[in-house]
Amino acid sequence: MKKFALVTAGLIALAALSACSTSSPDVIQRRDTQSLSQVLDASVLSVRNVTVEGSQSGGGAVAGGVVGGIAGATVGGRVEGQIIGVLGAVAGAMIGNAIERNGTQEQAVEILLQLRNGERRAVVQAKGADSFKPGDAVILITTSGKTRVTRAPELAASANANSSVPQAAPAASH
């Protein structure tokens, strides 16, 4: 029963580690709030699905090694327990590392863009609420060195290129 509790605790720790990070364009980091961002207008040239490799911080290997070592050390006598404990720690570390890597892997899109000045850019971001297709009007928002792509607001997408200030919507009459 003790061994089961230890293994369960280790797996919960590994799951928690794998849920710590995201590159979703729909999630804004707390440190990026109330920051002035650069915004550029662009058009989508192409979109392709990609996989963002999972991270390997070492936390998964450490947690797996501890769980494997403790579980292995409880097997057999003193000498056998030590040997199996070492083997369990190595196996646990390898398994924990693989769980962390696979748990933090993300499905993403690579978006090839054409800026208004003719320059081209590519941005890779996790799949979010928006889906893009060639010809879509989008904006690139850069904050703290990270850029995300989102749909251009209707006002920006339809604004006259000669106008530098968008016109306000007419007021509703009562």
UniProtKB/TrEMBL annotation:
Signal peptide extent: 1-18
Entry keyword Signal: yes
Keywords carried by this UniProt record: Signal
Name of the protein this chain belongs to: Glycine zipper 2TM domain-containing protein
Species this chain originates from: Roseateles albus
